[in-house]
Amino acid sequence: MVNHITAAIRDNKKNSILAPIFVGFEVLFEVLIPIVMAILIDKGIDAGNQTEILRYGAILIVMALAALVFGILSGIAAANASAGLARNLRHDIYHHVQDFSFANIDKFSTAGIVTRLTTDVTNVQNAYQMIIRVAVRAPVMLIFAFIATIKISPRLSTIYLCAIPILGIGLGLIIHRVHGLFTQVFDTYDELNNVVQENLNGIRVVKSFVREEFEKKKFGTISQKLFNGFLKAERLIILNAPLMQFCVYSCLLLVSWIGARLVVGGTITTGALTSMFNYTFQILMSLMMLSMVMVMVIMARSSAERIEEILEETSDLTVKPNAVQQVPNGSVDFENVSFSYVGDPNNTSLKDVDLHIRSGETIGILGGTGTSKSTLVQLIPRLYDATVGSVKIGGIDVRDYDLEVLRDQVAMVLQKNTLFSGTIKENLRWGNANASDEELVRVCKLAQADGFIQEMPQKYDTYIEQGGTNVSGGQKQRLCIARALLKKPKILILDDSTSAVDTKTDALIRQAFREEIPDTTKFIIAQRISSVQDADHIIVLDDGRVSAYGTHEELMRTSQIYREVYESQNKGGAQDE
What we know:
By secondary structure, this protein is of the alpha/beta class. The chain has 20 helices and twelve strands. Strand 11 (537-542) and strand 12 form a beta hairpin.
C-alpha cells in the first residue's frame, strides 16, 4: 500500500521535503519564544528595566514574524505536495483502469471505481498534507518543548510523562476499533453511488413507470445506512476529545499547583513558571494535533487500502512482448471454444463452439435471450478471453496480437451504444480522428444517418448531449454504425444495433454493407430474421451451444428453432419485404 502512495509523489518530492523543513524552523522559533519571554519577565518587567523590555520585546516580534513566515511557506509547500499527490493518484488509477478487462471492471463496479477516484483519493490527499506538516510539527514541538521543561524544572516535566501513555493507550484502542468501521462506510459509499448512477441513467424509465417514490425510498435506505455507519465511527472518534481535555486540564492544574509552591519556595522564578505554562500548552497542543492526524490517518488508511485494490488488480488480458502488429484479414475461427464469466470450465456460458468464417462473409446470429449471442462476439476483439479453446483472426490466436492493433481492426456497434457530449463530428471522429468532412458524410450515408443530420439546425456541428439524450434511439444507433464504419475495420460486429430502426432502413444499411464494404467480415446479431436472412451463413445459438449453422434455406429445412422463429415472425402476413 505504501509503495503505491509514495510512487505517486513523483514530481512533488521537492515540496514534500520542503514542507517539513519549513515546519521545523517554524517550531524552533515557537519553542524559543517562551524562553525569551521568561528572560523579558525576569530581567525586564520584574527588574523594571525598560531597555531590556524593549530589547527582548523586539526579539520576540522578530521571532514571531519568522515563525509566521515559515508557517506560511510550510502550508504552501504541503498544499502543493498533497494536491500533486492526489493528481498523480487519480492519473495512476484512471490509466490502470483503462487496461482492465470487462471482468476486472465487473469485479469493482463502475460506482466503486468512481468512489475510489474521488472520495478515497481526497481522504489520502488530506491525510498526506497533515502528515508532512502537522505530523512533523507535533512531535518536533513535543520533543523541543519537553526538553525545555526539563531544563526549567525536571520535577514539573514528569507531569507530562504521566499524560503521554494515557493518551497513547486511549488513541490506540480508538484507532483499532474505528478502522474497520470506516472500511464498511466507504463500501457503503460505493452502494450509494451505484444507486444514484443507476437512477440518473434510467431517469426516463423511472418517470415512465412512476417509480419516483420507490427510488426515493431506496436512496433513503442506503443513505441512512451510510449515516449510521459514520455515526458509529464518529461516536468512537469523539472519545478522543474528552480524553484529551482530561489530560490537558489535569496537567494545567498540576503545573499550577506544584509550580506555585516552587515559586513561593524560590526554586523557580515567575518568568520560568510562565514559560512552563506556555510549554504546557505547546506539549498538549502537540498531543491534540497528533490525535487529529491519527483520526485522519485512520480514514485515509481505509481509503488507501481501497485504492491499493485497484492498483494491485492485474488485468485478465495480458499482451505478449512480441505481439503480432498486423491483422492479415478478417477470417474468424472458433476452435472448440467454451467460456465462463467466473473462469470455471464447469460453469460455462458458451459450450464447445467450433466455427470457421472466411474473410468478407456476412454472418447472422440468432437465439433467444440468454443464449450468449453477445458473449460470442465479445471474444473476437478480446473483451474477454476464451476459458477453453481459442479464437483466431486471420489464422492467428487473438491472444498473440497487440491488443490495440486487434481492436483497431474490429469495430463493434452495440444495441445500447454510447454517444459522448460534443458535436456529431466529434463523436464520429472517435472512429478516425483524422477523417475529413467528406468521409464523415460518406459513412453517414451508408448508415442512413445523413438524412436526419441534414435536417438538424447545425447539421454535422449539432451538439450531442451526454449519452445522446437529444437524439432518438434509432438515430443514435445509426450514428454509432457510421462511427464504426469510419474505422475501416476488417471485422464489423453489429450487436442488435438496428433494433431501433424500421425494416426499410435496416435493409438499406445491409445493402450498403454489401456494396461498400464487401471485404469486411460482418457479424449481425438480430431478433428479426429479415435482418440476417440474406447473410452468407446464420448461426443459431441455444443454451450457449451452436444449435445450427447454414444459409436461410438450409436452416429452414434442418433447424426447428430457426423455422419456428421464422414462422412466428411471418405469421399473418407480417413478412418483411
